[in-house]
Known about the structure:
CATH superfamily: Vaccinia Virus protein VP39
Largest sheet: 8 strands, mixed
Number of helices: 8
Low-confidence stretches: none
CATH class: Alpha Beta
Number of strands: 8
Shape: globular
Oligomer: single chain
Amino acid sequence: xxxxxxxxxxxxxxxxxxxxxxxxxxxxxxxxxxxxxxxxxxxxxxxxxxxxxxxxxxxxxxxxxxxxxxxxxxxxxxxxxxxxxxxxxxxxxxxxxxxxxxxxxxxxxxxxxxxxxxxxxxxxxxxxxxxxxxxxxxxxxxxxxxxxxxxxxxxxxxxxxxxxxxxxxxxxxxxxxxxxxxxxxxxxxxxxxxxxxxxxxxxxxxxxxxxxxxxxxxxxxxxxxxxxxxxxxxxxxxxxxxx
Length: 243
């Protein structure tokens, strides 16, 4: 899934605009996310194997915030071909990239790719699995509970929601440490101080992380009866919620 190298923030910007999933970002997204999210390939592999154990015959699997299709491709390897996939994103450029990738990898199943804004709500029906991989953090906090309640309603009994998020530590002193370790990770992946700083500024008003405990409380308040953490690395976590 390699492609163009992320150099979006490698030149000084006098006033850094809010981050958007533009065509420029779509063209380098695979490189950006792999260099910016610890264990991203392993997260995707884990989502694929979890999906293999939780899909239900005659249902649909949704990937909300599908971006360029990495999660869809991993699930395609593990889930029977008679299960339809739906990918939703609010960036048409990302959807175009995803559509091309599905064709390049010759995916042999029904895949519907749709434009949709999770802030205004989307219709999910007959789902056994819904994935929000690094997506919920971009939904405005005021809209998150309403979204999760609607996803709960759209899931079949025993259906699951798989979430991967950037999170805040429960304690602010650990949070400072974890952020430091995270920026060290980005430095090891050849991001400069300027790139790290400008990306942080661009995301400041767009990516709003919650504590892990806050996410789990939100899921329980939305109706989910079981939750479990399946991945954690400092300020990143993956968790499952079952209806």
